Amino acid sequence: MSSVAVLTQESFNEHRSGLVADGAGDEEALPTYKDAFPPLPEKASSPDGTQEPANAWTSKIRPLKSSVITQVFHVPLEERKYKDINQFGEGDQAKVCVDIMHKTGAHLELSMAKDQGLSIMVSGKLDAVMKARKEIVSRLQTQASATVAIPKEHHRFVIGKNGEKLQELELKTATKIQIPRPDDPSNHIKISGTKEGLEKAKHEILLISAEQDKRAVERVNIDKVYHPFITGAYNKLVGEMMHETGARINVPPPSVNKTEIVITGEKEQVALAVAMIKKIYEEKANSYTVSSVVAPSWLHRFIIGKKGQNLAKITQQMPKVHIEFTEGEDRITLEGPTKDMQMVQSQMEAIVTDLISRMDYTEIIVDPKFHRHLIGKGGANINRIKDMHKVSVRIPPDNEKSNLIRIEGDPQGVQEASKELLELASRMENERTKDLIIEQRFHRAIIGQKGEKIKDVRDKFPEVIINFPDPSAKSDIVQLRGPRNEVEKCSKFMAKMVADMVENGFSVSVPIFKQFHKNIIGKGGANIKKIREETNTRIDLPAENSNSEMIVITGKKENCEAARVRILAIQKELANITEMEVSIPSKLHNSLIGSKGRFVRSIMEECGGVHIHFPTEGSGIDTVTIRGPAEEVEKAKKQLLSLAEEKQTKSHTVELKAKPEYHKFLIGKGGGNIRKVRDSTGARIIFPTVDDEDQELITVVGTEDAVREAQKELEELIRSLDNVVEDVMTVETKHHRYFVARRGQVLRDIADEYGGVMVSFPRTGTNSDKVTLKGAKDCVEAAKKRMLEIIEDLDAQVTMECVIPQKFHRSIMGPKGSRIQAITRDHNVQIKFPERLDAPGKGPAIENGEANGEVLVTEEAATPVDPAAHKKCDIIMLSGRKERCEAAVEALKALVPVTTEVEVPFELHRYIIGQKGSGIRKMMDEFEVNIQVPAPELQSDIISITGLANHLDRAKDGLLERVKELTAEQEDRSLRSFKLTITVDPKYHPKIIGRKGAIITNIRTEHDVNIQFPDKNDENQVQDQITITGYEHKATAAKDAIQAIVDELEEMISEDITLDARVHARIIGARGKGIRRIMDEFKVDLRFPVPGAADPNQVSVTGRPELVDEAIDHLLNLEEEYVSAVVHSVVYKGRDRGPSKGFVVREAPWQTGTEKAPDMSSSEDFPSFGAPVAATAKASPWGPKRF
């Protein structure tokens, strides 16, 4: 046995463990000392002259080549570019060398030879030296040039792939080689460089050409149809030919319409390849035929069939035959084996003959502008014609600008479709197109949110086509097309729609502090609903999470103002809010507001969030409203006026004085007079407000010329007003009371309107009819004219009676007398209601809808009471012109509510009433009527509807429509209540329900049924009964679906297997991913034991028999794999390491001789680096020392 030595004694005992085992076999596996520690190579031979044999160290060492090379170039004197001997190392030559070193990275050293030649030593990496050499030759050496002629077809071989060969040649020879372009007929290649380089380059180019001379090129023309036979499947045949002959064969691809096949290579190889190709061609040409079948081009698509179905039947039977259709040609090309070709040709001819016998086509001419109308919206018209007549219609696209429409199909269908299309086109020629200009902002409102409004218009005018422009086009033109009369009607209807939108589209924003929004809404929306109803406006509040404080009111202008006042009043009641109006010329408003409200917003923010309201642009109103806490409002007012003053300094201003009573006359009715002055001069005239100190001051603002003209006109008007005159007119005494009634309200209105004219009536008791008017001449004349108009109306006045039962009077008056006030205003009459019967002698009569109105006194003769006469409390008196009174009487009678009865089945009453009366309230609000449903205990079918006559029909129709809907719902509920049960073993219930109810939910959704499983905790319920409720056919379908699942489950089996409990967690995987993957893969169900189970190793597998077996095999394989991993892990962790013997080697020097193992503590055996060591003749176990 070999001796075994231990390298370490104590220090390495614990360094490694378990590496050495007892036994001779293990010792043989130990490394020898020489293998583990090979000796270093000797530099010199041994004393006896023999070379030491190679060892492990020498065998592994490889000589390394230096990456830096050095080359020396010699430039003779006659070839030097710079020959000035006195400037060697200086001047241009030195600069060139430095530039070459920078550019290439190589190092250059120059020296002068005895013959005045230049020696250049270049050092650096190989590629850098080669580049430097090329630069030296081109820049330090004189250049010569030469040409070499080689065949044109060899030029590409000199260039090489991507020019690589040419670049390599230039670098190798240090020359510049210029090859003529492909379109240049010359075959001369120009070379420039040194003489030595020229010779080298010429030699290399001629070598390349000589090599190519040995090669040959052959071109063979073979019909395209035979190319597939030459290439073979997947180019296999042509590949075999190239491999066999060594030639290169280039067959053009199918997409390239060329017949030429190119063969290149050695002459013998090319000849062999050409012979093989021609042989294949001749064989196939004798057994291959090309033919054609005559078929009109318009029939081609019918021959091919839908998605190529007809053609596929032929090609499947004869796959070797190629059928080609060429667009625009009246033939079909067939290519293939002669035998197959004859059968395919006969089939194709039969199909063509059949189609020609039962198909036809025609072409009609229709102006292209009607094409899109023939097609219809979404192709509706043309698709209808196609389906109805079973034809194909081709209408050319717009870019073709063709008027030819082609119709193909059954002859009769073609004729009928052609006739219908021509009739449509003829009708369109007689139609009229009208462009309606409607602002684009109204387009969306006319169309409606989902197109419902424009649908109503189109239903009303079905013959008119209405086209709106694309929103991106920003056009206001809406096009109407159709019969002349219908287009006119539709145009008027849409114009009225727009007018209503304009009238009701006025919008005003009211800033209200956020904390008061809930008070404006009121409990359950009561406040906001009331304001909306009474002002007939739409009021939009910002969202709760919005920072906006603006409430937007939309509707008619006067209604919006009324709603605004009411909303502001609510805020004013709730907080200490002050409102102040500041007069600022309206022309300054835009500049005060600033871009996007910048200026005014900064003022509002600085002043504690006050609200500043500017009037609508173009309204001409100068009043700006500031609202908020008193101190902050005052602060905002100062800032606003200061800003306005700055803006106003750029304008010219003039002030005039006029008596306050003249102001209204100067302004005129509705601002008419002052508007004329403004329009004619362009100046802005500002009158004082009631809060101004100087009530006589009138300010004129504008350009200097405009102000001067306006000042002149106003001064003339004022002078004429200062000319006071007095005039007298006659007014019959019976009319005096009208003018002086209600504390002289009529006279006050006349004075305000006509420059403060003073009108004096004689005292009561005097029988005088003289009335005095005093004031400016123009004002007096105008006031006098107005009074005469009033007298004329009074003279023509009559009194009429309108008998309406008193119980309807409140309904006729409307909320706060609004309806009666409207009649009074519209018909210019006086209306007086009688006193109530239940309070005789108490309370005044109601006149014109006002409780404090005065009673008109009319003298009537006393007459005895007639029992047949109408009750006094039912008589409403009207005063005014006869025709106006008659119209007002009709209006009053139209307001009398009427009651009608509708028979509705008693069982539907509760559905009509709705939850908490919501249904019936909605109908009453919608139809503006009162609907009375009888009490439940009466069991009556009669519902009473009370309201205006024009509302009753709509309400009755609406109620009957609702009854119809409810009846249909009732019948539907009855059909949906069909029930059936299915008996299913409870153990299958979880499988039918599925994971998280997925399967049962899918069945419920698919069949629209309700499926009820028995309650597990209810002992009284039958546990195997599943109840299905829904339509009978759907319930049956759902039952079949459940039964199918049950049938599948009953086919399944369940097997128990034993799996080591230690591997359960690994099989299940993180969050059950592993077990779900197995169940999905094998379509089985796995059940692992719960903690504390009797047998923790038992696992149940359920599924179809074959799938269960596969799943069990897979699980057992996994168990075997996981268990072995667990065992190895346990063995490794529990291994007893035992005492370590260190690193052991065989045949160590201290074991083979007298030496002992080296002492690791000895500095002699293990010296430190750099420490001096005494010389000794003692032999070392490590070998001879070399230090």
TrEMBL record:
Cell membrane listed as a keyword: no
Gene3D superfamilies recorded: K Homology domain, type 1
Keywords recorded for this protein, A-Z: Acetylation, Cholesterol metabolism, Coiled coil, Cytoplasm, HDL, Lipid metabolism, Lipid transport, Nucleus, Phosphoprotein, Repeat, RNA-binding, Steroid metabolism, Sterol metabolism, Transport
Which locations, inside or outside the cell, does it occupy?
Answer: Cytoplasm; Nucleus
Q: Name one Pfam family in it.
A: KH_Vigilin
Q: Which positions are tagged coiled coil?
A: 700-727
Q: Name one GO cellular component term.
A: cytoplasm
Highest rank taxon of the organism:
Eukaryota
SUPFAM superfamilies annotated for this entry? Answer: Eukaryotic type KH-domain (KH-domain type I)
Q: Where is the K Homology domain?
A: 142-210, 214-282, 287-353, 358-426, 430-499, 504-572, 576-645, 650-719, 723-792, 796-897, 898-964, 976-1047, 1051-1120
| Role noted for this protein | Appears to play a role in cell sterol metabolism. It may function to protect cells from over-accumulation of cholesterol.
Q: What is this protein called?
A: Vigilin
